[in-house]
Structure formats: C-alpha cells, structure tokens
Amino acid sequence: MRRQLPYLVEKDPRFPENLEHRKHWEYAQVVVGLEQLGALHQDALVLGVGAGHEEAIYDLSTRVRWLFATDIYGSGYFRAGEADARMLLDPDHFARCPYNRNRLVVENMDALDLRFEDRTFDAVYSLSSIEHFGGLAGATRALDEMARVASSRQCRL
Ligand SMILES: C[S@@+](CC[C@H](N)C(=O)[O-])C[C@H]1O[C@@H](n2cnc3c(N)ncnc32)[C@H](O)[C@@H]1O
Fold this sequence. Notes:
By secondary structure, the protein is an alpha/beta fold. The chain has a single domain (26-149), classed as Rossmann fold (3-Layer(aba) Sandwich), CATH 3.40.50.150. The protein has helices spanning 6-11, 22-36, 55-60, 86-89, 135-149, and strands at residues 45-49, 66-71, 104-108, 123-125. Helix 3 (55-60) links the parallel strand 1 (45-49) and strand 2. It binds S-adenosylmethionine. S-adenosylmethionine binds at residues 23, 50-52, 54, 71-72, 76, 78, 82-83, 110-112, 127-129, 132-133.
C-alpha cells in the first residue's frame, strides 16, 4: 500500500494507519495475490477489467510485460470519476506511483464483450467493478468473458 500510494505516506508517515480505506487494501491484495500465484514476471500479460485509473494498474506495469487496463472510459455513471476519458489519451496524468509507461496499454472496452482472443492473458482481475456491470446477468457474462481470455495453463481467477 505504501509503494502504491506514496502521496498518502507523505501526508501521514504512518500510512496506512489512520487513513484506512478498503480500496487501498484491495489494490495491494491483487498484487500480492498475483505474485503468490506466480503470475507476475517479465513475460506476463495481465488484464484489468473496469480498471479506471486505479493504482494497481500502474504498480503492475512495473512487474509484467504488458498491463492492459480496460473500462468504458468516457461513458456510464463513473465517466466524471474513475472512468474519465482522459485516461485514454494521457494515462500519465492519473499516475500517482512509480510505473512503466511503456508497458501500460489503456483501451476502451465493455467487460461484457472483451475484444481479445481466448486464453490471451496470464491473469485477469477486476476490482470494485463487477457489481456495476449490470446485475447478476452482467456479472455472470463478465466473469465468463474474463475466464475465456485467461490462460488455463497458468492462472485462472
Ligand atoms: C467503482 S469504479 C472502480 C474503478 C477501479 N477499478 C477502481 O478501483 O478505482 C467501477 C468501474 O466500473 C466501470 N464499468 C461499469 N460498467 C462497465 C462495463 N460494462 N465494462 C467495463 N467497465 C465498466 C466503470 O466505468 C468504473 O470505472
């Protein structure tokens, strides 16, 4: 959490103490979890779905070959926040932690229709988003899509 959110460490050196937030925990957990699964290496392709401009995509870009961040940027309920369309043109603008700008690919994409071949990615994840994909039917469809594009050989989340 301290690596992903250095601006909060500057704000309070005891961070995450006193500034606890569920999303900070979630961002850190996905990186630690993928690490423990052996999914983070210099040849790995990782996909974030409904990723917005979360810190995890930036942090992961330093650990994999390519990190693909997808969202319906510029539309939907979150278009003025997490899904800000500027992310498509200038992801640097939203970076708040060290990252590799040459390994971060940002694409506009509906979670229910992922435009990738089957078994493309070593790992696929989604944080704080699946509940926004259109109820149970949308969540189920998105999970099917995420499983489809995840490699069965290495790791399926
Ligand atoms: C609460 S935000 C979370 C964003 C990011 N994962 C984070 O933790 O900051 C939910 C995100 O889901 C995205 N979203 C909603 N419906 C979507 C869909 N059908 N396909 C892809 N993303 C979608 C929104 O645009 C928004 O960015």
